[in-house]
């Protein structure tokens, strides 16, 4: 066997996307011991940086080792006791995932559903909360399967007025769309690095409000072998997972440094660097960058004569779902894009599999050259597949967006120069 040597790719699907090379470089840094002062300082720095990304003052802001799903499962299994009622508004595949994980945690799961390609009016969610009276309202922010982003600003108030906590899966949105954990009253939120955050999958940033942290800590059962006489007698049923037990993980990230797992050091470096790059760029600037390149991609696919799926007014900035034209073999076009251009785009799941392509503009790939290359390549493959895309129509429409939005060039170049100022943080 030879050394790993992946083909050159431009990952323009719904995530993962290409990691920022600076994140990959950070991952190549040497390992240190788990209780080396450098290690614990790096954990503390990561907590500080991620508070800015989440826009929160939450002390309990840290990482769970594992992909985004580990973060979701950690939050749900730690917040929910068997029999607790949870309400999940489902508007795509990942809402179903929250319901599934809640059910496996033994919760009494209630769902409301809206058609894929739409989001809920907050009033619909409030009605359901009034009816179900859940202990937890659990919602996906951006459901990558449909590209829709559920407005969150009212949900914290709705949950709290009915004595519920609010959990949000922000995997697909964080870093590329506005997210204000404290302002929106979010009690628990989790993400993954591989979308707008510019890293590889494998680390799940988490933030917990004081209310969520104390609900979880009430059930803290410190495991035998490290438990001391000072550990208070626990209340309630132990958290059903040991690895994803946020009560013990908080003690590992907190001043007690109580050993839990062996922190995934290279992923810690990656997560710290993802956050450092975003904080250096400025969260608002990063969101604008995703909005601008997303708008260029949207204009570009329309310029190719393609139809966009769903309620575009509620689309995430960073991914667009495009209807596969009649008579075109969607998988064959995706395969040809990969073979001929090294460009990857995605299809979707369930009812949308083979019906739409999903094209992302996120993280390191929320860039003008990535957008224009993808549109040029897609035009070529569409025409080869017999679809009459107007020659140059996609690139021209995207360029028109960039030309109209003169600040875009400034933004794009400021991203590259600002994030290169290594010593700012
Ligand atoms: C909204 C959302 N939630 C959860 C996940 C699961 O993430 P992971 O595959 O990193 O575990 C994804 C993955 O695409 C996602 O888009």
UniProtKB/TrEMBL annotation:
<feature type="modified residue" description="N6-(pyridoxal phosphate)lysine">
    <location>
        <position position="195"/>
    </location>
</feature>
<feature type="domain" description="Aminotransferase class V">
    <location>
        <begin position="41"/>
        <end position="345"/>
    </location>
</feature>
<dbReference type="GO" id="GO:0019265">
    <property type="term" value="P:glycine biosynthetic process, by transamination of glyoxylate"/>
</dbReference>
<dbReference type="Pfam" id="PF00266">
    <property type="entry name" value="Aminotran_5"/>
</dbReference>
<feature type="binding site">
    <location>
        <position position="358"/>
    </location>
    <ligand>
        <name>substrate</name>
    </ligand>
</feature>
<dbReference type="InterPro" id="IPR015422">
    <property type="entry name" value="PyrdxlP-dep_Trfase_small"/>
</dbReference>
<dbReference type="GO" id="GO:0004760">
    <property type="term" value="F:L-serine-pyruvate transaminase activity"/>
</dbReference>
<dbReference type="GO" id="GO:0008453">
    <property type="term" value="F:alanine-glyoxylate transaminase activity"/>
</dbReference>
<dbReference type="InterPro" id="IPR000192">
    <property type="entry name" value="Aminotrans_V_dom"/>
</dbReference>
<keyword id="KW-0663">Pyridoxal phosphate</keyword>
<protein>
    <submittedName>
        <fullName>Aminotransferase V</fullName>
    </submittedName>
</protein>
<keyword id="KW-0808">Transferase</keyword>
<dbReference type="InterPro" id="IPR024169">
    <property type="entry name" value="SP_NH2Trfase/AEP_transaminase"/>
</dbReference>
<dbReference type="InterPro" id="IPR015424">
    <property type="entry name" value="PyrdxlP-dep_Trfase"/>
</dbReference>
<comment type="similarity">
    <text>Belongs to the class-V pyridoxal-phosphate-dependent aminotransferase family.</text>
</comment>
<dbReference type="InterPro" id="IPR015421">
    <property type="entry name" value="PyrdxlP-dep_Trfase_major"/>
</dbReference>
<keyword id="KW-0032">Aminotransferase</keyword>
């Amino acid at each position: 066997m030879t050394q790993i040597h992946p083909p050159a790719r431009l990952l323009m699907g719904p995530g993962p996307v290409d990691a920022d090379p600076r994140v990959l470089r950070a991952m190549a840094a040497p390992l240190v011991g788990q209780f080396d002062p450098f290690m614990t300082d790096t954990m503390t720095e990561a907590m500080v940086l991620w508070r800015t990304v989440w826009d929160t003052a939450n002390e309990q802001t840290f990482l769970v080792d594992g992909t985004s799903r580990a973060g979701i499962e950690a939050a749900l299994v730690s917040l929910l006791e068997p029999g607790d009622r949870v309400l999940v508004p489902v508007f795509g595949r990942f809402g179903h995932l929250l319901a599934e994980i809640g059910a496996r945690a033994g919760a009494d799961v209630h769902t409301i559903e809206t058609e894929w390609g739409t989001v809920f009016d907050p009033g619909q969610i409030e009605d359901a909360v009034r009816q179900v009276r859940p202990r937890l309202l659990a919602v996906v922010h951006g459901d990558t399967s449909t590209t829709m982003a559920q407005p969150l600003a009212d949900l914290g108030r709705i949950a709290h007025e009915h004595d519920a906590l609010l959990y949000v899966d922000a995997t697909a949105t964080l870093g590329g769309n506005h997210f204000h954990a404290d302002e929106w009253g979010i009690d628990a939120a989790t993400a993954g690095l591989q979308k707008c955050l510019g890293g590889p999958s494998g680390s799940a940033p988490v933030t917990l409000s004081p209310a969520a942290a104390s609900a979880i800590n009430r059930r803290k059962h410190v495991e035998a072998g490290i438990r001391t006489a000072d550990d208070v007698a626990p209340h309630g049923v132990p958290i059903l997972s040991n690895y994803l037990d946020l009560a013990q993980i908080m003690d590992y990230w907190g001043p007690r440094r109580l050993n839990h797992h062996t922190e995934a050091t290279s992923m810690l470096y990656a997560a710290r660097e993802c956050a450092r790059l975003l904080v250096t760029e400025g969260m608002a600037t990063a969101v604008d960058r995703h909005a601008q390149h997303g708008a260029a991609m949207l204009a570009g696919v329309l310029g190719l004569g393609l139809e966009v799926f769903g309620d575009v007014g509620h689309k995430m900035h960073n991914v667009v779902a495009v209807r596969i034209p009649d008579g075109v073999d969607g998988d064959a076009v995706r395969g040809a894009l990969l073979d001929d251009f090294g460009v990857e785009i995605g299809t979707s799941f369930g009812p949308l599999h083979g019906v739409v392509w999903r094209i992302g503009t996120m993280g390191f790939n929320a860039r003008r050259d990535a957008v224009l290359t993808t549109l040029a390549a897609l035009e070529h493959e569409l025409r080869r597949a017999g679809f009459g895309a107007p020659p140059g129509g996609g690139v021209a429409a995207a360029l028109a967006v960039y030309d109209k939005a003169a600040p875009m060039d400034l933004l794009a170049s400021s991203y590259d120069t600002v994030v290169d100022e290594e010593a700012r943080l």
